[in-house]
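Section handout, structural biology tutorial.
Before the tutorial, make sure you can parse a SMILES string by hand: atoms, branches in parentheses, ring closures as digits. In the record below the ligand is pyridoxal-5'-phosphate, and the chain has 407 residues. In the tutorial you will relate the predicted structure tokens back to the input. Do not try to memorize them.
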Amino acid sequence: MTPESRAAEFDAADPLSGYRERFTLPQGAVYLDGNSLGALPRATLEGVCGVLERQWGEGLIRSWNDAGWFEAPARIGAKIAPLIGAGPHEVIACDSTSVNLFKLIAAALAMRPGRKVVLSEPGNFPTDLYMIAGLEAQGLATRRLAERERLAEALDEDVALLLLTHVHYKTGAMHDMAALTRAAHAAGALVLWDLSHSTGAVPIDLNGVEADFAVGCGYKYLCGGPGAPAFAFVAERHHAHLQQPLTGWFGHAAPFAFSDDYAGAPGIERMQCGTPPILGLAALEIGVDLIAEIGVARLYEKSQALSQFFLACLGHHGVALELVSPARSDARGSQLSFRHPEAYGICQALIARGVIGDFRAPDILRLGFAPAYLTFADMAAAARHLAEVLASGEWQRPEFNRRAAVT
Ligand SMILES: *Cc1c(COP(=O)(O)O)cnc(C)c1O
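Predicted structure of the complex:
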């Protein structure tokens, strides 16, 4: 049986197959980069146009009240909450992941006076490490990095906060959130989880593991659009003591009292800084609604099935690439990463064939499997293209090997 006929059987039996139509994807493309920029839901086109025409064009400033603009950050946060095991009042959609990291690292440091160390791991997503460095430059933090096997022993009485990305952006390796949260708490430290590569793809139980804080991205699996607002989670037990440093007027308990003195909102709204980006939030809400409708459990199940099938297809074609993601599907997020010295050229050759994955320096070919809109036929096609690219050596062609600036 060919991978293609196998794929047809799997697609016919796939309870999520109908969801592909709810997204607009370019004809003929196999999109394996939904972990970097999620695809466009069809409903977003009309939905955002409606916000422009009716809410902005006609409603004008009245829409802050009439169209629920004020409540949008908390309303969307409440919709993200069940995807990550949080209570509806513990999550808010605001700012970027980077800015939310800054606010929550600083807040955690303020809650652990006498401790300055923020512990993370080398190779964590750059912005996470840079945000710690920024607070270090302000004299507020000390950055400590330990390899993942060494994290538990690096947790001592100087550590205020453990900051980790749940699913690693490059390898897809997934941390044991429960065990690490427990270890941090046992050392008297708080925990901040970056869920950018997990939310909407992998089940997460923040309250089940008693996490303190989390951040995550709106434009990856949540399909909120390029630069979509991010989200922040603060466990309810910390709301009363939360001192985040970006004390803008939208985080005030009564923004329209126009008081000279700051008094933070009592709940998660305190995480806000300035006026929320309504157009970005409108697109994010539609993406979140769609992902929530499908449900994380079904998405995760399909994501594992897709990646296992992709590996089986590679095996069928005799492709033996070095897999840097965990081989067990329950130890990784929704992606597979392969190491090859010519990963850049291979990635470019695949893109020229319509298989859109990405390259992560220096030698990683990263393929994301966004389960909401990919099919098993996509897996079979992508694996066949990859086999052909490797066998033909077309990745050596000069147009695929011009190393431009890669973001
Ligand atoms: C994508 C990603 C971010 C993105 O941060 P921005 O502020 O939106 O640029 C942060 N952390 C991780 C782990 C990511 O994967």
